[in-house]
Amino acid sequence: MPHSITRFKVSTSILMAALSAVALTAAAQTTVSTEPGQPLWEVGIGAVAASQPAYPGAATNTTRVIALPFFIYRGDVVRAEQGNVGLRALKTPRYELDVGFSASLGSSANDVPERIGMADIGTLVEFGPRLKINLGDVSQGRSGVRLDLPLRGVFDLSNSFANRGISFEPQLSFDVPLPDGWRGGVGLSAIFGTQRLNETFYTVTAAEALANRPAYTAQAGLLSTRVSFGASKKLTPDLRVLGFVRLDSVAGAANSDSSLITRTTGASVGVGLAYTFGRSSRTGAE
Predict the structure, then answer these.
(1) How far apart are CA 192 and CA 162, in angstroms?
(2) CA angle at 218 for the pair 212 and 224, rounded to the nearest 5°
(3) CA 154 to chain centre
(4) Which is it for strands 95-104 and 145-156: parallel, antiparallel or unpaired?
(5) What pLDDT does residue 20 have?
(6) Could you tell me which of 16, 114, 109 has the C-alpha nearest to residue 66?
(7) CA nearest 268: which of 38, 45, 46, 105?
(8) Which of 94, 130, 157, 225 sits at 20 to 30 Å (Cα–Cα) from 147?
(9) 112 contacts 60 by C-beta, under 8 angstroms
(10) 13-66 per-position pLDDT tens digit
(11) How high is the pLDDT of residue 212?
């Protein structure tokens, strides 16, 4: 999903900021497993600087710096970690089912030359179930390979939670051994959207059409494919550094012939710091 800033009402700014942090953290945390014996809850502050395409296929990148407090909770049912906030309905060594939220920031049409004069892309929040399947050895209760199958409704926070369709993003994730205390992971995924979701990015109405931007009606199907790499390291018990690199491609996508797609491959990069200033003595659920 796209990640850049748009205008929004003051009444929704706090919620938008929290969800934005979730989305950027998710992009940076691609590791499959989590460290054992982590606290039930942690609070702290994090900052992420990221440059990302305004939407899949856009030639324009947007750069943002976000600094926000964070809260992590690792309960048996309620979970808030690794870029996801929600409820865990099932947990076995092989399978996990949760219901959660994620988010992506929108983009102003004035910031994207291809969309000048068109509607802004709003701040999008997603909600729905996700099935996680550990594909590696689970004899120790952990796995270095995982398949995630999230199916989520998409809603526009900038427009009174207007329905923007449904997304499905199967992702295969791998732990990557790294030296000197670093933890890393690689993710391979494909994003599919219903017609309503794909119209948000690629439809051009008759009123918005120009000589170099003909009217176009987006179709349901593949939105983009994605390869991502993330890494993190604890510099001190309380301070962690993280980074991510992601490549998105719209080659073979359902709407690759839209005039709003001007670049087949787009790159995203980001770096961040997270400082934990409080944690519980009680260990959370894995």
Answers:
(1) 19
(2) 100
(3) 13
(4) unpaired
(5) 44
(6) 16
(7) 105
(8) 157
(9) yes
(10) 444 444 444 444 444 444 444 566 788 888 888 888 888 888 999 998 888 787
(11) 92
Residues with Cβ < 8 Å from 131, sequence gap 6 or more?
A: 95, 96, 97, 148, 149, 150
- Cβ burial of 15 (10 Å; 0-12, 13-18, 19+) is middle
Q: Exposed (0-12), middle (13-18) or buried (19+): which is 35, by Cβ within 10 Å? A: exposed
124 three-class SS: strand
Q: Is the Cα torsion angle 28, 229, 38, 277 positive or negative in sign? A: negative
Residue pLDDT, tens place only, 162-198: 999 999 999 999 988 889 988 888 999 999 999 999 9
The answer to whether 163 and 195 have CB atoms below 8 angstroms apart is: no
Taking alpha carbons only, the member of 179, 145, 171, 163 closest to residue 226 is 171
SS3 assignment, position 206:
helix
DSSP-based three-state secondary structure for 23 = helix
Pairing assessment for the beta strands 162-168 and 183-193 based on DSSP bridges: antiparallel
Residue with tokens 């710096």: 65
What is the radius of gyration, based on Cα positions, of the chain? 19
11: enclosing H helix or E strand: none
Residue 156 token pair: 């526009």
